[in-house]
Design brief:
36% of the residues lie in helices and 23% in strands. Strand 3 and strand 4 form a beta hairpin. It is globular and about 55 Å long.
């Protein structure tokens, strides 16, 4: 386990998810120095995180967003502070009013996602798969549809004989959010 992990906990008042995440970190028995930051007290942080709290940084890098259990945090510490896979996160519904991702944050998520996903015009994610026939392409499309429905986040899907192309972006912000990368990672798991 990492001794004395420096944890910055971005939160806001009256946030039950934040309270649960903080309790989980403390229950993990990982030695931490916890710095709580109320995003509503800083306009830049409020714009950056909007409804994404809690956001948990460990030793200067984002580690968790929205939730964490004591077991996940302890495992994170045991693994030397490696972050969770995007596919293990949950898509968060976006109702607009949040900025789309740009710059370093967008590039970091693109690198983390990998697997031939492409960011197109800093606006959307795209990836294409090939299959030996229409039936297998359709079966994959149906699996993607089930994941999208479970996450409440729906991609554009182009289905053709032996090909499926997925295009993802958050329509409410007309750009990319973290949830687009989360769904892309989950789609990679159903192949």
């Amino acid at each position: 386990m990492t001794a004395g992990m420096d944890v910055t906990f971005y939160t806001r008042r009256n946030c039950p998810l934040c309270d649960k995440a903080k309790a989980a970190i403390l229950a993990s028995r990982v030695p931490v120095t916890l710095h709580e930051v109320d995003v509503d007290e800083d306009p830049e942080l409020e714009r950056r995180f909007t409804n994404d709290v809690p956001v948990i940084y460990a030793d200067g890098r984002e580690a968790f967003r929205h939730r964490v259990t004591a077991e996940e945090f302890a495992e994170f510490a045991r693994n030397g502070g490696r972050t969770m896979s995007l596919a293990n996160e949950k898509c968060v519904p976006c109702h607009g009013g949040v900025p789309s991702l740009h710059g370093d944050e967008l590039r970091a998520l693109e690198r983390e996602l990998g697997n031939d996903w492409r960011v197109v015009n800093d606006h959307q994610l795209e990836k294409e798969w090939t299959f030996p026939d229409f039936a297998q392409a359709l079966a994959f499309t149906n699996r993607v549809g089930a994941v999208a429905e479970e996450e409440g986040h729906h991609p554009d899907i182009y289905l053709a004989w032996g090909r499926v192309r997925i295009t993802l972006w958050t329509h409410a912000v007309d750009g990319l959010t973290r949830s687009d990368f989360v769904l892309a990672a989950k789609i990679d798991r159903v192949r």
